[in-house]
């Protein structure tokens, strides 16, 4: 999950 | 997405809605720092440069658009709307926010995850968000009396920061590789800035009295 590209938090 | 992050996003959204409602209903922005609002608009514009390059989720993109649009709407109201504009007290809102912008940008040039256009602007937005509330807190301190909606606006913003810290603790414990030092350290600094305000907010809430900050 944390390897996902981009920032997932606002 | 965990419950803490959702609660954080919702209180963040709520704070903006409270502020828009206050300005719209009273046609006045007294007690609101335009400088803080402009800093938030810059924060969102700088951070969400990835809106068109990285798709995370519909929720993520939707919230980004909402945050950019609502922060620009508030700044627009305070600068352009004839009635709201007149209620803005320039004399109270004297914080030199350009220094904050310059300092945060320099810090972002030095401290970032990667030296790319997007990453430097992302780091810049994180640092700027941490201190963006300062002009607002200084304005409240100066005017002493805080009206209910402005108090609630700052309260919800502080709650949003608190939930994000819980979210990071949760993620750190549940996601093996979750380390986001820039965001976490800046986030703790930002939340600490609210500590003083919260103290007085709770005292006034406990005593059921109007929120007043000491001079």
What does this structure look like?
The complex is a heterodimer of chains A (10) and B (215). Chain A is mostly loops and 10 residues long. Chain B has one domain. Chain B has helices at 3-26, 34-47, 58-79, 82-86, 97-110, 117-131, 134-143, 148-174, 181-206. In chain B, helix 1 (3-26) runs antiparallel to helix 8 (148-174). The A-B interface holds A 1-10 and B 5, 9, 12, 50, 53-57, 60, 63-64, 67, 122, 164, 167, 175-178, 183.
Question: How is this structure best summarized?
Answer:
The complex is a heterodimer of chains A (10) and B (215). Chain A has no helix or strand. With 10 residues, chain A is low in regular secondary structure.
Core attributes:
heterodimer, A: 10 residues, elongated, B: 215 residues, transport (chain B), protein transport (chain B), ER retention sequence binding (chain B), transmembrane helix (chain B)
What is the β-strand count of chain A? 0
- Our measurement of the CA-to-CA distance between the termini of chain B, rounded to an integer number of angstroms, reads 41 Å
Helix/sheet category of chain A: little secondary structure
What sort of overall outline of chain B do the alpha carbons produce when their principal axes are compared?
globular
Helix content of chain B: over 70%
If you average the pLDDT of chain A, what whole number results? Answer: 66
């Amino acid at each position: 999950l944390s390897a996902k590209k981009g920032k997932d938090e606002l | 997405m965990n419950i803490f992050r959702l609660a954080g996003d919702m209180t963040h959204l709520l704070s903006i809605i409270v502020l828009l409602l206050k300005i719209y209903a009273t046609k006045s922005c007294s007690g609101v720092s335009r400088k803080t609002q402009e800093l938030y608009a810059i924060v969102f514009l700088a951070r969400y440069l990835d809106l068109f390059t990285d798709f995370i989720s519909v929720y993520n993109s939707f919230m980004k658009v909402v945050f950019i649009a609502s922060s620009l709407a508030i700044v627009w109201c305070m600068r352009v709307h004839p009635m709201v504009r007149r209620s803005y007290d320039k004399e109270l809102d004297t914080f030199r926010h350009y220094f904050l912008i310059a300092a945060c940008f320099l810090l972002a040039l030095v401290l970032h995850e990667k030296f790319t256009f997007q990453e430097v602007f992302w780091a810049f937005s994180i640092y700027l968000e941490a201190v963006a509330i300062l002009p607002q807190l200084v304005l409240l301190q100066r005017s002493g009396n805080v009206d209910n909606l402005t108090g609630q606006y700052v309260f919800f913003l502080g709650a949003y920061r608190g939930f994000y810290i819980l979210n990071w603790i949760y993620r750190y414990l549940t996601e093996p590789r979750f380390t986001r030092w820039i965001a976490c350290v800046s986030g703790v600094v930002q939340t600490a800035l609210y500590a003083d305000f919260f103290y007085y907010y709770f005292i006034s809430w406990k005593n059921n009295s109007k929120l007043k900050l000491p001079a």
